[in-house]
From TrEMBL:
It is a multi-pass membrane protein. The keyword RNA-binding does not apply. This is MFS transporter. Keywords: Membrane, Transmembrane, Transmembrane helix, Transport. The chain crosses the membrane at residues 21-46, 58-76, 88-106, 112-133, 145-168, 174-196, 248-268, 288-305, 312-332, 338-360, 372-392, 398-422. The keyword Cytoplasm does not apply. GO terms for cellular component: plasma membrane. It is found in: Cell membrane. InterPro entries: MFS_dom, MFS_sugar_transport-like, MFS_trans_sf. Coiled coil: none annotated. Residues 21-427 form the Major facilitator superfamily (MFS) profile domain.
Length: 450
């Protein structure tokens, strides 16, 4: 028996339109992975060029994460107010311009300011692209297609590692080319997104029925009934209910547990690998291999996420990652090949599950606050990531690589426990059904979307 909350979107087959929209939406997360990773490679020549100390190095890496925090909160709400498509395009223009400007910095504060601004635009794209895609795809494919967005983070990171290695041939000024290079991806993604339609769910939530009907008939045909997409309209005050707070806490907790070690590896990969005795001959090749393994891990993860569910995949991979970092902490002096194998296992396990953090918030919250809620959890996750990234250089200097590995193991144990205690399975449930199950106050009861 079909779920009464299912709409024609859930009953429809997967089409070329869905695949194209997924590819276009993935440009933002791909840029995120690229920008986060390229700074670690650029610092090899950037540090000496601007004479960065440990604090300035931490700020250069962490400023983008702080910007993601701000961008998620501000632009998530803005996306729910003015629409998916406007923001879907506008933030890429800003990303490309800021990347080019980064190549011309001459002072550390300029680098930090531009990295922060880049982070704001990256933070904006998470709720924009993921909300847009979630509102178009059938529920039985939603995990894989939304997961592919975050898997694109790994592709971007691997691409940055390869490009950074190639651009290192430019010598002392290689960092300028590295910091400007994201603009190429931004412009290409911008061109691809120009013809994307507005979300009919969002149009309905704003009372624009005729426009929603036009989009629905164009994509799903004249027999599709737009009223099947109707959801009660709620305000951001809804996110302060007990159930919503629990859901925000759940997603934020496992999101934080994923991104702290992820950004540690990406932002300071060459330094961490060197301290483990890995990559003493080349600072770029091991980083490239690790980045590629994140992508490799996403393949079985995307295959499993709609089959076994979100929570089983999270629990199993958190356990593997905690054990991996614990092993390195116990034997940091093991042969480099063994330590690299352990980091490779972490990368595969992380790649197999880290995309879930972009799936679940889009499934748990209704259309009228979906981007707002996604922006909030992205912002919360980046608080922990920004703090840990800022302090990591000093922590590594003061306490050594073993202490860093124990910390990363503990972070994964935290993610495991949070998932077991707070987790809510969303696999295969229609967006409308999830929204209605919350028993949230309706538009008439709360006063409308501001």
């Amino acid at each position: 028996m079909s779920d009464p909350a299912e709409s024609f979107i859930d009953r429809a087959p997967l089409t070329r339109f869905h695949l194209k929209l997924t590819a276009f939406s993935a440009g933002g997360p791909l840029l995120d992975g690229y920008i986060v990773t390229i700074i670690g490679l650029a610092l090899v020549t950037l540090g000496p060029a601007l004479d960065l100390d440990a604090t300035e190095t931490g700020l250069a890496a962490a400023s983008a994460l702080v910007g993601i925090l701000a961008g998620g909160v501000v632009f998530g709400r803005l996306t729910d107010r003015i629409g998916r498509k406007v923001m879907y395009i506008g933030n890429l223009i800003a990303l490309s311009a800021l990347s080019i400007l980064s190549a011309f910095v001459v002072e550390p504060w300029q680098l930090v300011a531009l990295r922060f601004a880049l982070g704001v635009m990256i933070g904006a794209d998470y709720p924009i692209a993921s909300s847009m895609l979630a509102e178009f795809v059938p529920s039985r494919y939603r995990g894989r297609l939304l997961g592919a967005l975050f898997a694109a983070f790994g592709v971007g990171a691997a691409l940055a590692a390869g490009v950074g290695w190639a651009l290192s041939a430019f010598g002392p000024d290689a960092w300028r080319w590295m910091l400007a290079s994201p603009a190429v991806i931004g412009v290409v993604t911008l061109v691809l997104r120009l013809n994307a339609p507005e979300s009919p769910r969002w149009l309905l939530s704003r009372g624009r029925r005729a426009e929603a009907e036009q989009v629905v008939h164009k994509i799903w045909g004249p027999d599709a009934q737009v009223d099947e997409l109707h959801e009660p309209v709620v305000t951001p005050a809804t996110l302060m209910t007990r159930l919503s707070i629990r859901r925000i806490a759940y997603v934020s907790a496992f999101f934080i547990a994923h991104v702290i070690p992820l950004f540690a590896i990406y932002s300071f990969g060459p330094t961490l690998l060197h301290d483990l005795g890995i990559g003493t001959e080349s600072q770029y090749l091991p980083e490239l291999l690790i980045a590629l393994l994140f992508v490799v891990g996403s393949v079985p993860g995307l295959w499993l996420v709609d089959r076994i569910g979100r929570i089983p995949l999270l629990v199993s991979t958190f356990a593997i990652m905690a054990l991996t970092f614990g092993f390195i902490a116990v034997v940091p002096g093991a042969p480099p090949s063994l330590l690299f194998a352990a980091l490779a296992l972490y990368a595969v396990a992380s790649g197999a599950s880290n995309f879930i953090e972009i799936i679940v918030p889009n499934e748990l919250f209704p259309t009228s606050v979906r981007a707002t809620a996604t922006g909030i959890v992205v912002a919360i996750s980046r608080v922990g990531a920004a703090i840990s990234t800022f302090f990591l250089p000093a922590f590594l200097t003061g306490f050594g690589i073993g202490a860093v590995m124990w910390f990363l193991a503990a972070v994964n144990v935290f993610g495991l426990l949070a998932t077991l205690l707070l987790g809510e399975e969303t696999n295969g449930r229609p967006l409308g059904g999830l929204s209605r199950s919350q028993r949230l106050p309706s538009h008439s009861a709360v006063g409308g979307v501001k």
